[in-house]
């Protein structure tokens, strides 16, 4: 993991569908060199993974993130058995973020018990929903194929769905531009080689650009919520990360700062696939 790899990851956080040619122009490498580095990042301890999630509105649900403090590793089976759980992310300090997709106003039974108590905080996902919470059977087929491989070529999508490549291309564009799917990347922070990479969740009424400047010139915003945003950054050491956290805490308008160094990061892909299959069956 070096500076160029970090720049590539930062670009992908902002533009997950960017091809090697577009990234190459930004980082000063050849297209083939960028493709090779992306493949190495996917196989490395960073475990770069691209994904596309359907928006919760398509299933008539709301997305809520509950924050817990959990001792030790999370019992993954107990979490999944608790109800409509989309994902959980356990931090280095025991903080666990559990994302639920529930009917409005409900809470998964058993989740608090599985994590040893009530959540310490909660916030609602405010990502823009689809223009119309309706997809054709064709679009559901393409969406299902995109979940684990949103950067797939149109030819591969055609093979996976049995549709024409041009049809797949048009469907992918509609899914992305209408906010029916959310594109992103997932990583594990790697401290085994080079400098640490990390994410910082900052809450409050602060200047996003000013905080980004505190974190370094290559810092990017990887996610935004109503209460703040998540930054993706790098540092030469863990000590430097902690010093940066303290500077951000002291910045005007910052209410809270949480360092994100994931030890477990899971998405309930099987459950999402079942929800999609139900939609396909309803339209058959």
What's the total count of β strands?
A: 11
- The value of Rg in angstroms is 19 Å
Strand residue content: 25-35%
Mean pLDDT: 89
Count of discrete structural domains = 3
State the low-pLDDT regions, or none.
none
- Helix percentage: 25-40%
Q: H/E order of the elements?
A: HHHEEHEEHEHHHEEHEEHEEH
Figure out the total of helices: 11
Q: Could you explain the architecture of this structure?
A:
The protein folds into 3 domains: 1-46, Arc Repressor Mutant, subunit A; 50-189 and 263-284, no CATH class; 191-260, 2-Layer Sandwich (Alpha-Beta Plaits). Helix content is 38%, strand content 26%. The protein has helices at residues 3-14, 20-27, 31-43, 76-80, 111-114, 137-146, 154-161, 165-177, 208-215, 238-249, 269-282, and strands at residues 49-54, 62-69, 85-91, 95-102, 121-124, 181-186, 197-204, 220-225, 228-234, 254-260, 262-267. The strands form 3 sheets. Strands 5-2-4-3-11 form a 5-stranded antiparallel beta sheet. Strands 8-9-7-10 form a 4-stranded antiparallel beta sheet, with helices on both faces. The protein starts with a helix and ends with a helix. The model has no long low-confidence stretch (mean pLDDT 89).
Helix-strand layout with pairing:
Elements: H1 3-14, H2 20-27, H3 31-43, E1 49-54, E2 62-69, H4 76-80, E3 85-91, E4 95-102, H5 111-114, E5 121-124, H6 137-146, H7 154-161, H8 165-177, E6 181-186, E7 197-204, H9 208-215, E8 220-225, E9 228-234, H10 238-249, E10 254-260, E11 262-267, H11 269-282
Antiparallel strand pairs: 1-6, 2-4, 2-5, 3-4, 3-11, 7-9, 7-10, 8-9
């Amino acid at each position: 993991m070096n500076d160029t790899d970090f720049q590539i990851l930062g670009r992908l956080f902002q533009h997950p569908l960017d091809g090697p040619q577009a990234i190459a122009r930004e980082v000063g490498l050849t297209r083939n060199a960028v493709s090779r580095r992306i493949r190495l990042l996917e196989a490395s301890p960073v475990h770069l993974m691209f994904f596309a999630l359907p928006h919760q509105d398509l299933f008539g649900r709301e997305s809520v993130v509950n924050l817990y403090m959990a001792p030790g590793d999370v019992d993954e089976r107990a979490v999944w058995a608790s109800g409509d759980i989309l994902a959980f992310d356990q931090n280095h300090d025991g903080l666990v973020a559990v994302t639920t997709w529930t009917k409005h106003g409900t809470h998964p039974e058993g989740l608090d018990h599985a994590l040893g108590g009530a959540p310490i905080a909660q916030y609602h996902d405010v990502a823009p929903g689809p223009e119309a919470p309706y997809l054709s059977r064709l679009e559901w087929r393409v969406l299902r194929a995109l979940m684990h491989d949103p950067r797939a070529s149109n030819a591969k999508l055609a093979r996976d769905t049995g549709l024409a490549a041009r049809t797949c291309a048009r469907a992918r564009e509609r899914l992305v531009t209408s906010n029916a799917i959310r594109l992103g990347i997932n990583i594990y922070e790697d401290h085994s080689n080079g400098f640490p990479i990390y994410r910082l969740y900052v809450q409050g009424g602060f200047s996003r650009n000013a905080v980004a400047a505190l974190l370094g010139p290559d810092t990017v915003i990887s996610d935004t919520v109503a209460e703040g945003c998540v930054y993706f950054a790098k540092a030469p050491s863990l000590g430097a990360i902690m010093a940066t956290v303290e500077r951000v805490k002291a910045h005007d308008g910052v209410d809270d700062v949480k360092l994100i160094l994931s030890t477990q990061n899971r998405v309930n892909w099987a459950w999402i696939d079942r929800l999609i299959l139900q939609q396909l069956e309803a339209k058959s």
